[in-house]
Amino acid sequence: xxxxxxxxxxxxxxRARNLVKQAEAAGFDYCWFYDSHILWxxxxxxxxxxMEHTTRMRFAPCVTNPNARDWSMAASLFASLxxxxxxxxxxxxxxxxxxxxxxxxxxxxxxxxAEFTHKVKAMVRGEEVIYGECPEPVKFPWADGYExxxxxxxxxxxxxxxxxxxxxxxxxxxxxxxxVEWLANQAIQAGKDADRDMSDYKVVVAAPAYFGDKETCIxxxxxxxxxxxxxVADIVEKYGTDSGLVPKSLTDYIEKRKGYDxxxxxxxxxxxxxxxxxxxxxxxxxxxxxxDHVKKLRDLQKAGMTHFNIYLDNxxxxxxxxxxxxxxxPSFRR
Length: 334
Prior knowledge:
Layout: E1 2-7, H1 13-26, E2 30-33, H2 43-51, E3 58-61, H3 71-84, E4 91-93, H4 98-101, H5 110-125, E5 129-131, E6 134-138, E7 150-153, H6 157-166, E8 169-172, H7 177-193, E9 202-207, E10 209-211, H8 214-221, H9 223-239, H10 248-253, H11 278-284, E11 286-288, H12 290-302, E12 307-311, H13 317-328
Parallel strand pairs: 1-2, 1-12, 2-3, 4-7, 7-8, 8-9, 9-12, 10-11
Antiparallel strand pairs: 5-6
GO molecular function, one term: oxidoreductase activity, acting on paired donors, with incorporation or reduction of molecular oxygen
Organism: Halomonas icarae
Domain Luciferase-like: 1-307
């Protein structure tokens, strides 16, 4: 199983360099960065910097979207980072949440997500591509055939179908064992129905991890279910509570949700946390002592997870990386 860490753009450059070096030495495989250019600093200069201080770790945005950049610019950026890192670059891709909604714009339709995946992968390989915003063909003469891995973030049935049909993996921003299995199976089945080979398909679970007593852990990570609830609310609005397409456990937990402040996206001081209960935090995150982390991750692995991506947004980052390197990762590498 793979392990990753994920940063927001407010981590200082010096600290980011030190954390990725520590994480690579501890056995982590990936470093992901939030791609939300208004709320935090642009992530790609930080990715390029961190690549220069590692030799094995792979890097990716978690997640970018089709509406943030011109597609040729996005493809050139991705291909350039892949080339200068020796092929250590993936992308996570979504419809667009904080990076576009904070500007009052709407997320991209799923058809646009699928088209972006096909067209950008083709440009990165070096193929000639025509896409909607550019009437003339685009071809990078310097491209060298790199096959860009694209992992698609999804919750709803149609997004999961898209992730299975066109993605190299699915990103599930939730750590609940039952829900991970329920969501991952939909993406994998969609890929099989499209006659794709899903044997190497990645199921990335992105969630906070924290060490300590229950009360301390819950207080540090209660921001996360609120962020998840923002996505779930979109699904419930689209499909309703009685469609059978959204589990009751999800619709129940956002029943008392009143709103969301994007200026506090992914932060513990977001004012809209009142509907979050301790049991939801425990369900959605990986908390407790090292043995608790190993047990929860074993259960998630059985549910289909192939990659655990830790949202390092709660403080105590150096200790979390150290604990995983000493006590958790070795349990999955024996």
